[in-house]
Amino acid sequence: MGLQRANVTIIHPDLGIGGAERLIIDVALALQNRGHRVTIYTSHRDKAHCFDEARDGTLDVRVRGNSLFPAHVCGRLHILMAALRQLHLTVSLLSELSGKGHSKDAEDDRDDIFIVDQLPACVPFLKSFGRPRESKRQRILFYCHFPDQLLARRDEGGSLLRLAKVLYRFPFDWFEGWAMSASDRVVANSKFSRGVVRDVFGSERLGDVEVVYPCVDMDLGNKLPEKTKEDPLWNGKKILLSINRFERKKDMALAIRAYNGLGPEKRKGTRLVIAGGYDNRVNENVQYHQELDKLATSLGLKTATSKTVVSALSIPDDIDVLFLLSVPGAFKDTLLEQSKLLLYTPINEHFGIVPVEAMRVGLPVLASNTGGPLETIVEGETGWLRDAHADDEWTAVIDKALYGLSPKDVKRMAAAGKIRAEQEFSLTAMGDRLEEEISTMLTADRRPFNGWQQVFAMLALVGAILAVIAAILFRAM
Fold it and tell me: Which residue ranges does UniProt annotate as crossing the membrane (predicted)?
């Protein structure tokens, strides 16, 4: 017997274009397809820079908590502003759920499920003030991608500035674990992430942390237009593809160096396409694109940058490396379908949805032998795993994918990739796991939470820390 239909409210900080955003969209789709009423609340959505389902009416997306606090203050205080924006969103959400602007209908008899990801600031407030309706159950599921405190940069600037950053982050690091512990159940996006979560927060604090893998919509792999095969991109060049956000930690420079290692002769008739999330508002995106372009040209590779599909399709034939900024979903699928190999360069990626998207259409993957790819890629069957610090190993695999595989090998790997994506990482598989976790959560008592006295103690400590930071910064000026 399946899970009884529920009202599912998803809270996500920013519905841009990235792996975390794709995951939460798929969570919403998986549950909505099963008859649950799903609403996504977010503090930011740019309709010109988000996934189609977040703007075309497929999903009910509501923007709240974006009018009082900015996303940052002079490029600083991102985590503080994100937490304040989410709390503002939570006030609006609870007001709507209590009846203001929230229509009453037959679906109000359903259980209420909150799914929160990335930022847990709202969880204690939902637990304390989002009271369940009479005879109805209410539970909070936190979907953890990776502990935020491990993503924060603390090694920039001089010693005094680094000390100030450590002091600034301390209350937020404590708050992250405290807030997550208020949820009724925690799941992670991979076994790798689960291990890190347990190490950072402890199993006793969060209970049993299970894994719900992100997914891809397998139907898309069957809906690619046949004309793409009859009209190959760039006159049939052999395409090597790298897809990621333009961030230094994604290390797309590895793809450029490994491609350059082929040498001029083997690069003839090929092209490296580096595509991914790019936002002009994000300085790192702008700077890293410039760094990658500079690296490629310093190696003697000819480069071009396109922001539209039309301009990308019309670039000169002699371009070795093409940068595609914020590639549309439909064109990304075409690239995946027509490429010879996906180069997935990040080290210790928490999960990595792009390799699964590649396997969905039968494209083999070369990835770092760390993190999530260890769980998605089967060596020699759906792709290869290599040391991201060994450029020559990556070049050797590129050579093999371009020139060393027989047509029979190519078909075998394509079939293996599609089967693995279908069995382990489809929208259906994700929906099954989500409903299992929600059912387990509903049949158990709500996790007790009595931690507010700790907050008052922490507020006093924060005040003292802020005073110390101010003194440090004053001395550094």
Answer: 455-474
Rounded Cα distance between 113 and 138, Å, is 6
What is the model's pTM?
A: 0.81
Contact 138, 112 (CB under 8 A): yes
CA angle 357, 140, 199 (to 5 degrees): 70
Decide: 402 and 259 in contact? Cβ < 8 Å: no
Q: Mutual orientation of helices 353-360 and 329-338 as an angle, nearest 10°?
A: 60
Helices (H), 181-242: 191-201, 203-206, 218-223, 227-230
Which whole-number Å values give the CA distances from 139 to 26, 131, 186, in the listed order? 20, 10, 11
Q: Among 119, 130, 92, which residue's Cα sits nearest to residue 7?
A: 130
Using CB atoms within 10 A of its CB, is residue 422 exposed (0-12), middle (13-18) or buried (19+)? middle
Handedness of CA 12, 13, 15, 21 (dihedral sign): negative
How many Cα atoms occupy the beta-carbon half-sphere of 237 within 13 Å? 23
pLDDT digits (tens, 9 = 90+) for 142-196: 999 877 766 666 566 567 666 767 777 777 888 888 899 999 999 999 999 999 9
Contact 49, 17 (CB under 8 A): yes
How many CA atoms within 13 Å lie on the side-chain side of 416?
17
CATH number of the structural domain 6-215+428-476: 3.40.50.2000
What CATH topology corresponds to 219-425? Rossmann fold (3.40.50)
